[in-house]
Amino acid sequence: MTTGLSSYRCHLCKHILFLINQVVQFNISLQQKPLLLIHSGRLCLVLSVLVIGHGCNNDEGQAQTNAVVEALEETGPKTDGGTINYNLADIDLSSWKVTLPIPRADGRPLEVEPPEILDYATNSTLAPFMYNDSTDGSIVFYTYPEATTKNSSYSRTELREQMVPGSNHTNWTFKQGGYIRGTLSVPEISTDSDGNPHRAMVMQIHGRLTDEQRDLIGEDDNNAPPVLKIYWQFGKVYVRTKQLKDINASYEDMLSTTAWTDDSGTYFSREVGTEKFTLEVVANESGMTITMDDEETLVYDGIHMEKWGVFENYFKAGNYLVTRDEGAYARVKYYELEISHD
């Protein structure tokens, strides 16, 4: 008898069972990781696991293990005349690092930069949080509440643009221009105590202070606010941008995070639910345009966008889960992702 993923307490178990589209009605824990084997022209997915049913005897535990292996063999990529039908996402990761919800020794979130991120499919640290779903050609970003960055209360499995791979110090301004386009979905997200789905931020343009600006206002890091936050929220796509509280603020005052506030926010009209959608963002001296599915466009221009020109920026994409609820989790899939600059 099967049951939903919500019946499992272990995040890693949820992760593995989601991959193979098979759930078993036991509270289980995972002690090894999946291994992908290609042998004699056939693709065979084998999950090398020891499944321990809490309160179960050895025979029941073995039965669970057998069910998992059989499901992998049935649902993995198939062969056609010796050709492996294995779909991969169309994403170049050479200009991205990823932040994970697990902590380093100092308690800060673990990050993986280029070139290590390029081997995410075989990286044992990344595997539970960033992995291929070859059934639909996506990269899955999985996260849950744990480690957070210095300026946030929430956890993430999220890409951060690095124009120079391995460095955060080269970024772009609106005058230089930035473009990002991604096709994504949110196939699974937990609910709160009232049964409402949690929300996840799936794309951002984040501001950054130069070293000179940081020193001018006496900050101890280069953090600036995000000018664009795009959420999956209640099954729809929700956009928020920043506005300057005092449009007559001095240059120095504008550099402070507290000088800016969120606008009232706007929903795109389409309800996406768990389905795919495409986002395209263009930022330049005139402001920003955000287009969904090549059909509906939001335009942001005027004094607030003009004033934002004082900051450097970088793109972010992935799964930023906006909750600290116990047991919360989300999966965001990216099928395509590209960035460019004028």
Description:
This protein has five helices and 21 strands. The strands form four sheets. Strands 6, 7, 10, 12, 13, 14, 15, 16 and 20 form a nine-stranded antiparallel β-sheet that branches. It is mainly beta and 342 residues long. The protein folds into two domains: 5-84, no CATH class; 90-340, Jelly Rolls, CATH 2.60.120.200. Helix content is 13%, strand content 39%.
Report the helical percentage: 10-25%
Mean pLDDT: 83
Uncertain runs: 1-9, 19-57
Q: What is the CATH first-level class name of the largest domain?
A: Mainly Beta
One letter per element, helices H and strands E, the order comes to HEEHEEEEEEEEEEHEEHEEEEEHEE
CATH topology of the largest domain: Jelly Rolls
For the record, the CATH architecture of the largest domain stands as Sandwich
Radius of gyration: 22 Å
| Proportion of beta-strand residues | 35-45%
Helix count from the secondary structure assignment: 5
Query: What best-fitting shape do the alpha-carbon axes yield?
Result: globular
Number of domains: 2
What class do helices, strands and sheet pairing give? mainly beta
Give the beta-strand count. Answer: 21
Distance, first to last CA: 56 Å
User: Mind describing the biggest β-sheet?
Assistant: 9 strands, antiparallel
Annotation keywords:
9-stranded antiparallel sheet; 39% strand; 13% helix; globular; mainly beta; disordered N terminus; 342 residues
List the helices and strands and how they pair.
Blueprint: H1 11-19, E1 35-39, E2 42-46, H2 58-75, E3 79-80, E4 83-84, E5 90-91, E6 96-103, E7 109-112, E8 130-133, E9 138-143, E10 156-161, E11 178-189, E12 200-208, H3 211-216, E13 223-233, E14 236-244, H4 251-254, E15 260-262, E16 266-271, E17 277-284, E18 287-292, E19 296-300, H5 303-308, E20 312-321, E21 330-340
Parallel strand pairs: 5-21
Antiparallel strand pairs: 1-2, 3-4, 6-7, 6-10, 8-9, 9-21, 10-20, 11-17, 11-21, 12-13, 12-20, 13-14, 14-15, 14-16, 17-18, 18-19
